[in-house]
Amino acid sequence: MSFFRRLLFELWYFRKPPWESGIVPPEVEQYINMQPSGRALDLGCGTGTSSIALAQAGWTVTGIDFSRRAIQLAHRKAKKAGVKVDFRVGDVFRLGRLRAEYDLVLDIGCYHGSTITQRVDYLHNLENLLAEGGTWLMYGFFKPDARPGPGLRPEDIEIARLHLKLARREDGADRQERPSAWFWFTR
Q: Which residues, at least 6 apart from 88, have a Cβ–Cβ distance to it below 8 Å?
């Protein structure tokens, strides 16, 4: 990610970024209610809304985001909620220092904003970090055309299926009416 784009993200967190609703997505709530608690990794956690919900449900949670401001806000929210979450500033495409295996890896809009090279690194990280039987719960919107920029392409899902088993998919639309989907991949 370019310096300018990183700076833009940092600045957004001094206001309210458009993706920060402060609401736990129903798909995450459903997952929490259906699964026993375990270890969770929230990639691109932002201000920690979903990480905190997982911790409140008894999960041991690590949340990673490259925005220092977002992580500062996440720490404050967790403290106010009375839960412990291991929030870290970091690059979700370079997770070599993490050694734990996670029962859940959550990604709400991070993977779909990455480059092809980053996606390959990301999927290799998942193979090392996702516990046997674990779930990668991923949300992303689809690219409307072939121009560069964020969004999933059908081949991105097929490449992910080379690494993990697609257990479930729910299609919908985001706030901007772009086609999007939730994916439940398992190892």
A: 62, 63, 64, 71
